[in-house]
């Protein structure tokens, strides 16, 4: 049985083992060290475990320019978003090409070493409008790029510890492990659902529609850096667990987390999310309306349409382009505009604000909107966050 080929042909593993790790750690004590930003720490982990295959390190200038302009690496492999190391300017000033650096987290713990292959100007005026389709600082992804340094350091990373303090360690399966799990279960086709929110009935329905045409389902929440107003990852994990426990076929469902920092780059990020999932062994990827969007920066279907700019074999994963779904009282079931002939008056629709108000006041949203077990977890969180 063979699983889908990783992006670029080979699953990268930049984690050093045994004597090589010890030697690198010993050497790191005597070289210049650099503290990574939270975004860079997550990106380092994604490179280390092969989730960003074929990337083996932080991007050089040729890849950076090509990615910004053409959504491809310099060798033409599809890649939609730069993965760069851009420390503060006062730190990069003294760093030279060829120099070896110890990369550390914000608590001073050694993560990796990197020989600086290239040092180049961070062209934010190229990156921002191309990747984010806006230059407004109110966009959270744009704001992060603006705060980054004006110089990028490129080089392959040799990782000693991808994450000294992994959240949800038991659910943090790297691509090699999800692939093992799929093979062990005999799943040839696997649909992945990316989420940074609790799963309510609408998304439960989409995941189950996907599972109807695949062997297995990977519920793959993102636990990297998100916006401060998103529901915290630990609360979401509790919601996912109780939902799977009560409403999913456990022989067909795997829950694992992904340490990716959100860019909120909408369409381009949808492509990135699909390519990453291919590395995890996934064949089908659910792309909802306004996937990875924020505010009103992207058109409703942009994240679905962008896949049409590539040949299917260049992406490798089949995007499952879904409509919004809701409960329809007339149909007595979950529906979308593709399947239901009734008007809005038959739909159970609640705005995000309405849901938050209900939860804060200790009331469950209607069972057609949210499973009661999930609602109860969110009520506990909303009420404790309020005080
Ligand atoms: Zn209907």
Describe the structure.
This protein has 14 helices and 13 strands. The protein is of the alpha/beta class. Strand 12 (325-328) and strand 13 form a beta hairpin. The protein is globular and about 70 Å long. The mean pLDDT is 95.
Give a summary of the structure in a few sentences:
With 387 residues, the chain is α/β, with parallel strands linked by helices.
Shape: globular
Strand proportion, as a percent range, falls in 15-25%
- Structural category is alpha/beta
Number of helices: 14
Question: What percent of residues adopt helix (DSSP H or I)?
Answer: 25-40%
Sheet with most strands: 6 strands, mixed
**Contiguous runs where pLDDT drops below 50 for at least 5 residues:** none
Radius of gyration: 21 Å
Q: Quote the average pLDDT.
A: 95
Summarize the helices and strands and which ones pair or pack.
Layout lengths: L17 H11 L4 E3 L2 H11 L8 E2 L2 H10 L18 H4 L7 E5 L5 E6 L2 E4 L2 H9 L7 H8 L3 E9 L15 H11 L4 E6 L5 H12 L3 E6 L11 H15 L5 E3 L11 H13 L4 E4 L14 H4 L6 H4 L2 E4 L3 E4 L4 E4 L15 H9 L11 H15 L1
Parallel strand pairs: 1-3, 7-8, 7-10, 8-9, 10-11
Antiparallel strand pairs: 2-6, 3-4, 4-6, 5-6, 12-13
Helix pairs in contact: 3-5, 5-6, 9-14, 13-14
Bound molecules: zinc ion.
Features:
binds zinc ion; 14 helices; alpha/beta; five-stranded parallel beta sheet
